[in-house]
Amino acid sequence: MSNVYPEEFDAIILGGGFAGVYAAQKLARALRRSASSASVALIAEENHMVFQPMLPEVAGAALSPRHVVNPIRSLCKGVHVFKGKVDSLQLDERKLTMHAGDFAGPVTFSYQNLALCLGAKVDLSRIPGMQEHALLLQNVGDAMRIRAHFISRIEEANLTSHRPTKRRLLSFVIVGGGYSGVETAGQLIDLAQAIHKHYQHVDWADFSFTLVHSRDHLLPTLHRNLGEYTAAQLKRRGLDIVLNRRAKAVTANRVYLDDGSGIDTNNIICTVGNAPHPLILNLEKTAPAPVSIDRGRITTLPDCSIEGIPWLWAAGDCSSVPQTDGTPSPPTAQFALRQGELMGRNIARRLKGQETRPFTFKAIGELATIGHHSAVAEIKGLRFSGAFAWWMWRTIYLGKLPGVERKLRVLFDWTLELFFPRDINLLNPRFTTDIKETHLEPGDTLFHAGDPSFSFYLVKKGAIELRDKGRLIKKVGEHEHFGERALLENRPYLFQAVATEATTLVTIRKDVFQQIVSADSAFGKSLQQSARSYLTTEELELLLNRLPSEQLEQPVSAYMNAELVSVSSQAKIEDALDIFSESSRNYLPVIEPDGACSGAVHKETIYMRMLTSKLDRQATVSTLPKVNLPSIEQTASLRNALTLMTRSNSSKAIATDSDNRPIGMIAIIDLLETIH
Question: Per DSSP, what are the bridge partners of residue 212?
Answer without folding.
Answer: 175, 242
